[in-house]
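Q: What would this chain look like folded?
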Amino acid sequence: MFTGIIEAIGTIRALTPKGGDVRVLVDTGKLDLGDVKLGDSIAVNGVCLTAVELPGNGFWADVSRETLARTAFIDLKAGSRVNLEKALTPTSRLGGHLVSGHVDGVGEVVAREDNARAVQFRIRAPRELAKYIALKGSITVDGTSLTVNAVNGAEFELTIVPHTLGETIMADYRPGRQVNLEVDLLARYLERLMMGDQAAEPKASGLTEGFLAEHGYLKN
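A: My prediction, written as structure tokens:
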């Protein structure tokens, strides 16, 4: 688990094909690796990766085909800057929100404009994730815990203050950029819980208007 509070900006140093997937070397910059052991988890742009080698100035991790297919990791190359966060511990401050490091989908930055000293971003989420994104709710973008300031269909807006721009890779964002999205954990579990016994059905496909009406959640 993670908090979505980025601890350092790292750099991809190598991406090496290995046995059908990829092994990646991440230079961790100012991130303190003194308490990191082999097998520990580190979030890279919101993707939970396992450290398999610790050369001293960073770590090697394996990136599966599944991760490459479901995240924006496929767009990274040597020299790419990435957000880094070590796993949450029992004594960590929960400054952001609970983040699993399991990406739900890939979004696209569709607009960027200055807003006083802050920067306003508009991001388009995959259609299937729109129902989980709420005004003033939490969302994780490339591992960063952020507050949604506006929602319009599958698009949402973020207002990013100078500190966040300086401590994350969001300063690099331009329209067309692909970003990793993880929706709020509670929203996903609430949806599953509301399905009740239907969740055990093989063809259960999530909540529908018919289901909500049948159970009294929609009023005429």
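The radius of gyration is 19 Å.
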